Amino acid sequence: MYEILKREEIAENIILNEIKAADIAAKAKPGQFVLVKANEQGERIPLTISMSDKSKGTITIIYMVVGKSTKIFSSLDKGDFFEDVIGPLGMPTHIEKLDRVICVGGGTGIAVLYPIAKGFVEKGSNVDVILGARNKNLLILKDEMDNISKNLMICTDDGSDGRKGFVTDALKDELEKEKADLVVAIGPVMMMKAVSELTKKYNVKTLVSLNPIMIDGTGMCGCCRVSIGGKTKFACVDGPEFDGHEVDFNELQMRLRAYLDREKKSLEDYNCKISGNR
Amino acid sequence: MADKAKKIPRQKMPEQKPEIRRSNFKEVPFGFDKETALLEASRCLKCKKPSCVEGCPVSVPIPQFISLILEEKFDDAIAEIRKKNFLPAVCGRVCPQENQCEGSCILGKKGTPVAIGALERFAADLEINAGKKDVCLNVKKTGRKVAVVGSGPSGLTVAGDLALKGYDVTVFEAFHKAGGVLVYGIPEFRLPKTIVEYEIEKLKSCGVKFVLNYVIGKIKTINDLFEEGFDAVYIGVGAGLPSFLNIEGENFNGVFSANEYLTRANLMKAYDSDYDTPIAVGDNVVVVGAGNVAMDAARTALRLGGKNVSIVYRRSREEMPARAEELHHAEEEGIDFKLLTNPVKVLGDENGRIKGVECIKMELGEPDDSGRRRPVEIKGSEFVIDCDLMIIAVGSGANPVLTRSEKDLALTKRGYVEADSETGKTSVKGVWAGGDIVTGQATVIMAMGAGRKAATDIDRYLSEL
Ligand SMILES: Cc1cc2nc3c(=O)[nH]c(=O)nc-3n(C[C@H](O)[C@H](O)[C@H](O)COP(=O)(O)OP(=O)(O)OC[C@H]3O[C@@H](n4cnc5c(N)ncnc54)[C@H](O)[C@@H]3O)c2cc1C
Ligand code: SF4
Ligand code: FES
């Protein structure tokens, strides 16, 4: 059992939980994730470790409430427990000192990006950050990112914060302005795809973090398989980070839709159940 | 005696009728009642040089335990089995008896062998139903600590053997439930999970600690375990890396590894609507492979609502590696066998969902390294099987999660751990290994046997420290 020490709605429908998990916190590195299961009947859901505190023995996860499982997670309060938290899983990000890293984050991908950006800063790299969201109410970790980055640029679809437009517009300007050694792009699949296509033109190495459906998270089922440079890889053990120029994003998007119908139904059933009108 | 054996036919366990069981997950055979067990036990000739025991990978004293059943000393019978076999209720159900004890039984030469597996199951089930757990009272503690990585049959055996010798044993398991393949792979209708739970509870009552959700190599390295005060480590992490066919279209939705399909169904209980994990249900299901894993996947897909479930296998019936009973049960339940057939390409629709699989017919050529005749393609014989679900069960490899983090651990070319076949000792001092992570996917009894040998050697090592 893993106790929830903090629950906060940090943006519309986006929840942050700080969880007591000392052994995981002691080993967690940027880029790694945990699998979380709420109760006996629950699914195992992969979530990135956004922050970890060795001395407090805690890890922090951030998720958007999208389906039944995240809805159940979000119903848990401070003092409640997750039945299972497994991790740290996946390969840590290879973090080094670079002259210029541009970190591009979209949606809840920003939660995944934050520890990586912070890691690069702590190694002495210059880090510029571009964040995107549909509107300003959906933007997370803006202050945290502001604290660590050299430049922070915000893009929203409706212009409610920062520049109106996509992260790729801002990225293009930045790449025109000055050369970058690395771009780290984490967010919706189509955002990562667009960023990778852009950086390919500028010949800038690009890391993306993939979020396929997972079960075990230890390489035992192959459900998380992705195509990288034409080869099948298991995102949970070989990734979740890969070279953005090699990823088959269309296939990933397609595989993410595997249970869409079933998920919709299971959320509807759950909503009916909790509101009591079946 | 010999006359008597001839007169009494081999007794069969009663079982659920195929048309009923094909839509439920309850166990198929019900087991012997006392009368039938006694009748079957009376068939045994109690051979002086029992060939059945030679056929058993762990040398269970078969005629002895059968005699004890006949004398109705059931507690003694199970104690006799347990001397050699740590998980009798499991092995009675899943061992390939026809290649082991029963395959070597003298009665099989002219007629039918003694139903050794069913008798083993009978004795073990009596013990479980009585709920006895007090097997390790008054064990003197050695004060030494042993870590077991992986809670499959080999890890459980090491834990049990060493707990009985007074060691302080902790089992670390990656999943949220202990039992290895016994809980995530082998389905409920073949091995009820309550049996595995019983064995684990029994270990707990002997003081074995289980730490779940703990992936060694990630949350702790083996070195960390030594630093935390463990004196020896046993690696029994299994061979859970699913093989795919590496053919075009394999990543379409609706194509699963058997590991994924069975894990969803068994560990995550996707067949129970109270559980949240989704699983794909197909009308037309193709399962590739013909081992136990393939049979389990096919029969699970059938029970989840599959209308036409086919096994596609590139060799012929004789080469099928599954247990005879599983093949028989699968056929009775209406699984269709498409033999000498090999998939070459998965076909998908515009939404990325599987809609069929293109196959090619095979014929048997010259024998290959394994001594089996090599299947070769018949040119121009391609045809398409329409399907909406495909499950790949063509074997598995060594999972690298643990071994990747242990640079000093010597591995074979294929990534398995190198361990001494008699002791399980690895290249690292204080570290033993056994089961599927050493041999590649084998059997429950082989994994247990390796665990037992390693436990003996760990005990020897620690008592000399
Ligand atoms: C579907 C299926 C059906 C089968 N049917 C039969 C049958 O009928 N008869 C038969 O004899 N055999 C059968 N087998 C084979 C048999 O189950 C295996 O040979 C046996 O379970 C191997 O035991 P093991 O202890 O080596 O490993 P496993 O049972 O594989 O257990 C390994 C355990 O280690 C855990 N683990 C892995 N990595 C780590 C890590 N880094 N840290 C912590 N824990 C870890 C895993 O989660 C797992 O629980 C079947 C196998 C499958 C998959
Ligand atoms: S070989 Fe057959 S008849 Fe002889 S002891 Fe073994 S089980 Fe009994
Ligand atoms: S989640 Fe099962 S192999 Fe990656």
The termini of chain B sit apart by 53 Å
Question: What is the succession of H and E elements of chain A?
Answer: EEHEEEEHEEEHEHEEHEHEEEHEHH
Strand order of the biggest β-sheet of chain B: 3-2-1-4-16
Number of strands of chain A: 17
Q: Which architecture of the largest domain in chain B does the CATH hierarchy give at level 2?
A: 3-Layer(bba) Sandwich
Total count of helical runs of at least 4 residues of chain A: 9
State the helicity of chain A in percent bands. 25-40%
Can you give a write-up of this model?
The complex is a heterodimer of chains A (278) and B (465). Chain A is of the alpha/beta class and 278 residues long. Chain A has two domains: 2-89, Elongation Factor Tu (Ef-tu), domain 3 (Beta Barrel), CATH 2.40.30.10; 100-255, Rossmann fold (3-Layer(aba) Sandwich). In chain A, 32% of the residues lie in helices and 31% in strands. Chain A has helices spanning 22-27, 68-75, 109-122, 142-148, 167-177, 189-202, 235-238, 249-256, 260-275, and strands at residues 2-11, 14-20, 33-37, 45-48, 51-53, 58-64, 81-82, 84-89, 101-106, 127-133, 151-156, 163-164, 182-186, 206-209, 225-228, 231-234, 241-243. A seven-stranded mixed β-sheet of chain A has the order 12-11-10-9-13-14-17, sandwiched between helices. In chain A, strand 3 and strand 4 (45-48) form a beta hairpin. In chain A, helix 6 packs antiparallel against helix 8. The longest helix of chain A has 16 residues, at 260-275. The relative contact order of chain A is 0.13. Chain B is an alpha/beta fold and 465 residues long. Chain B has three domains: 2-129, Alpha-helical ferredoxin (Fumarate Reductase Iron-sulfur Protein, Chain B, domain 2), CATH 1.10.1060; 145-240 and 397-463, FAD/NAD(P)-binding domain; 244-394, FAD/NAD(P)-binding domain. Chain B is 36% helix and 16% strand. In chain B, the strands form four sheets. Chain B has a five-stranded parallel β-sheet with strand order 3-2-1-4-16. A five-stranded parallel β-sheet of chain B has the order 6-14-7-8-9. In chain B, helix 5 packs antiparallel against helix 6 (74-82) and helix 11 (153-164) runs parallel beside helix 20 (444-464). The longest helix of chain B has 21 residues, at 444-464. At the A-B interface, helix 1, strand 8, helix 8 and helix 9 of A face strand 5 and helix 15 of B. Bound molecules: flavin-adenine dinucleotide, iron/sulfur cluster and FE2/S2 (inorganic) cluster.
